[in-house]
């Protein structure tokens, strides 16, 4: 279990690789489309090269996760930000990567922070300048759906394996979608991938009612 940094892991090198990949994808998208509409950006997010790069970043950033049961998650947000009119050199594309933390057992532990929550925080921050969530790409190993466990945290009969965001994250997505000036539209792309494997699931945020 990982509840502290492993001295044998070069976390700084991992972080630098992640940041380099983030900036590289932002530049690639900027060169492909300098002023995309949210709809155009979502179509681009579904492009196999873009989707593949987002998942690669997720695979890399999940190495920074700290979780007492080694359930490591990497989440990558692709978003658009507000840019100054007339400044064609300002890049509207934003790529952010994060990893989860949970140092002890218990849903209410203050140490629990889902990888997706960092992105939800930035979306809600008025100073971030973000205008639209384009896609949220999640990389993890499949686990039991939250509702498929009993109070002892053991699997109940006929458990469902899932790669979709956890129950709490789905609730947050649903709440953010219902905001008056929501930055998450029904067609925002939510994509999950099994770590180290090709299994993927792609669906619109509108599925989270």
Question: How does this structure look, described?
Answer:
This protein is 31% helix and 22% strand. The protein contains five helices and nine strands. The chain has helices at 11-32, 38-45, 48-61, 115-124, 167-177; strands at residues 66-67, 74-81, 93-99, 101-102, 130-140, 143-144, 161-162, 189-194, 200-204. It has a five-stranded mixed sheet with strand order 3-2-5-8-9. Helix 4 packs parallel to helix 5 (167-177). It starts with 10 loop residues before the first helix and ends in a 5-residue tail after the last strand. The model is unreliable at 155-161 (pLDDT under 50).
Strand content: 15-25%
Query: How many beta-strand elements?
Result: 9
Tell me the number of helical segments per DSSP (H or I, 4 or more residues long): 5
Identify the overall geometry: globular
List unreliable stretches of 5+ residues.
155-161
Strand sequence of the main sheet, in spatial order? 3-2-5-8-9
Structural class: alpha/beta
Q: Biggest sheet, open or closed, and with what strands and sense?
A: 5 strands, mixed
| Oligomer status | single chain
**Distance N to C terminus:** 34 Å
Q: Whole-number average pLDDT?
A: 85
Helix proportion of residues, in percent?
25-40%
Could you tell me the radius of gyration in angstroms? Answer: 17 Å
């Amino acid at each position: 279990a990982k509840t502290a940094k492993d001295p044998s892991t070069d976390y700084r090198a991992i972080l630098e690789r992640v940041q380099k990949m983030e900036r590289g994808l932002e530049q690639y998208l900027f060169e492909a489309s300098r002023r995309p509409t949210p709809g155009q950006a979502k179509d681009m997010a579904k492009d196999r090269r873009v989707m593949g790069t987002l998942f690669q970043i997720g695979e890399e950033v999940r190495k920074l996760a700290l979780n007492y049961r080694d359930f490591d998650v990497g989440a990558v947000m692709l978003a658009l930000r507000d840019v100054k009119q007339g400044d064609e050199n300002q890049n509207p594309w934003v790529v952010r990567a994060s990893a989860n933390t949970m140092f002890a057992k218990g849903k209410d532990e203050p140490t629990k922070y889902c990888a997706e929550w960092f992105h939800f925080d930035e979306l809600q921050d008025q100073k971030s300048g973000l205008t639209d969530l384009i896609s949220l790409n999640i990389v993890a190993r499949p686990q039991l759906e939250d509702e498929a466990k009993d109070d002892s945290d053991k699997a109940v009969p006929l458990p469902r394996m899932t790669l979709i965001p956890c129950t709490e994250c789905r609730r947050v997505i649903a709440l953010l979608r219902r905001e008056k000036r929501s930055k998450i539209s029904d067609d925002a792309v939510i994509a999950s991938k099994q770590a180290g494997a090709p299994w993927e699931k792609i669906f619109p945020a509108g599925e989270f009612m």
